[in-house]
Amino acid sequence: MDAVTLSVVSSALGGIAEEMGTLLVRSAYSSNIKERRDCSAAIFDVDARMIAQAAHVPVHLGAMYESVRVVAERGPLPGDVWVLNDPFSGGNHLPDVTLISPLAFDGEVVGYAATRAHHSDMGGMRPGSMPADSTEIFAEGLIIPPVRLVRAGRWEEDLLDLICANSRTPDLRRGDLRAQAAANGLAATRLVELARRHGTGLVLESFAEVLRYGERRSRAVIARLPDGVHRVESELEGDGVDDRDIALRVAVTIEGDGITVDFTGTSPAVRGNVNCPRAVTRSACCFALRVLLPDDVPTGDGTYAPLTVVTEAGSLVDAQRPSAVVAGNVETSQRIADTVLAALRLAVGAGSDVLAAPGQGTMNNLVIGGATWTYYETLGGGQGASARGRGPSGVHVGMTNTLNTPIEALELEYPMRVERYELADGTGGPGRHPGGDGLVRSVRVLEPATLSVLTDRRRHAPGGVAGGGPGAVGHNDVDGVPLPPKASRQLPAGSVVTLRTPGGGGWGPPP
C-alpha cells in the first residue's frame, strides 16, 4: 500500500475510535465518564489485534487486547454486544467494564469495536467498588465473565437487570452501559461507510498494513539503542492490609530491535489488593515503550510487537484468581511503568531529552460514597522535568489520562462540598528545570459516608534526574489525622478529607 493511502485510511480508523469516545462521553450518565472521561475506545482486527485507538486511558488500552481475544474465541456474531469485567479474562479491575461488538462486512466478521469505562459502583464491600482492605476478588464487586449483553440487536434485559441490581447506583449503570453499546454501534456504521468510500478489500488490507508499519517504526527506534541489560528495583507502599513496602524488580534487555521486560524476582502476590493481572502489567510495559516513540507512530499491537514481557505466575505482577486486584490496576500499574521507564532511562542516558524525570507515580484514588451514591476521582500531581523544560503541575501522569471532576458538577451531584482545591506550590523537585507541583484537594462530606483512598508515593519521593532533586511526597488525612497510603474509614457528617499529591522530580543540578 502506498504511503498516502495508508496515511489516509489509518487516520480514518483513528478518527472512528476518537468519535466512539466522544459519543460515549456525551451520552454517559455518570460524572465519572461524562466529566472525568475515564473511558477508552479502540478497534481490533478479526485476530483481536488493536489497529486503532483514541488518545484515552493507557491502562485500559494496553490491556483490552486480552478481553477481545477471549470474546473472539467464543464466536460472536454480527449484532452481538459482549460484556465483561473479569480481571482474569483480560479486564483491568471490576469497575472497568468492557463492551465488545463484532464488526462485519456483508455478514462476515472482520474485526471488533471495544469500549472500556470505569463504572463508579459495581457492588462489593464498600461504595465505589474500590475498597482499600479487600483480600480477595469477590469482595470487590460483581464479576462478569464474557457474556452476551445484546444478541442479534436485542438487549438481554434479564442480564442487564442482574448487573444493575448489583450496583448501588443502578440507573447510572444502565445508562452508561447503553452509552458504551451506542459507541460500539457507531464504529460499525463508520467502518461500513469507510469501506464504501475506499473499497472493502483496501480497508481490510489497511488493517494488516497499519500493524506492519507500526512494528517497523517501533523496531527502528529500539535498534538505535545500545544493547544491554538494565536492572531497577522499586517498591509499593503497602497493600492495604500490611503497610510494609513490597518489592518490584525488573530487568530490561535490549537486543537488536527487540526489548524484553523481565519481572523475575518481584514479590509474590500479597494479601491486599495491589496485585496486578498480567494484562495490566503488559499494558504498563506497552506505555513505557510508547513513551520512547515519536508522536506520529500509530499506536496498535504492531507497535508493541518488539516487546516481550516475562512474569512469574502467582507474583505481584501476574496475579491469579482469587487475588484482590482493584489497586493493582491503578497503583501497581503506575509503579510498573515508572520502574520500566527508569530502566529505559539507563539505556538512553540521563541527559537525553526523550524521557522526563519521574512524575508523581500514583493516581491518588479518592472514593467516597453512601447507600445510594458514589464519588470516585483520581487526582493530578506533578510531572517530572526534562532536558526540554520544567514539568507541568497538577496533571494526570503515567497510566491515567483523565480530567478532574469540576467543583460545580461534584457539588450538584453529591452531598459534598469542596473547601480547598489549589496547586501545592513548591512540591516539585528542584533542578535546572524544576519538577511540576502537586495539588491539594479538601472535600467535606455533608452526610455519613464511607472513604477509601488508594495512593502511593507517601513515603518514597519521585526521584530527580541528571542532578535534579526529588519531588515532595504526598499526604492524606481526615480532619487533620494522617492516613496511611491505602486506607478505608467511616466518615461522620462534616468530616473533611484532604489529599496533597506528590510533585515531580527535577532535571539537572539546581542553578
What would you note in describing this structure?
The protein has 511 residues and is an alpha+beta fold. The chain has helices at 3-27, 31-34, 58-61, 64-72, 157-165, 170-198, 200-223, 278-292, 326-348, 407-413; strands at 39-45, 50-53, 81-84, 96-105, 108-118, 147-151, 154-155, 228-237, 245-255, 258-262, 307-310, 365-369, 374-378, 416-424, 438-445, 449-454, 475-478, 481-482, 486-491, 496-500. It has a 7-stranded antiparallel sheet, with helices on both faces. Strand 4 (96-105) and strand 5 (108-118) form a beta hairpin. Helix 5 packs across helix 6 (170-198). The chain is globular. The model has no long low-confidence stretch (mean pLDDT 95).
Cα-atom radius of gyration: 22 Å
Give the overall average pLDDT. 95
User: What's the number of extended β-strand segments?
Assistant: 20
Main beta-sheet strand count, sense and barrel state: 7 strands, antiparallel
Helix percentage range: 25-40%
Q: Which geometry do the CA atoms define?
A: globular
Number of helices: 10
Beta-strand percentage range = 15-25%
CA distance, first residue to last residue: 52 Å
Structural class: alpha+beta
Q: Order of SSEs, N→C?
A: HHEEHHEEEEEHHHEEEHEHEEHEEEEEEE
Cross-sheet strand order for the largest sheet: 2-1-5-4-3-6-7
pLDDT < 50 runs, ≥5 residues? none
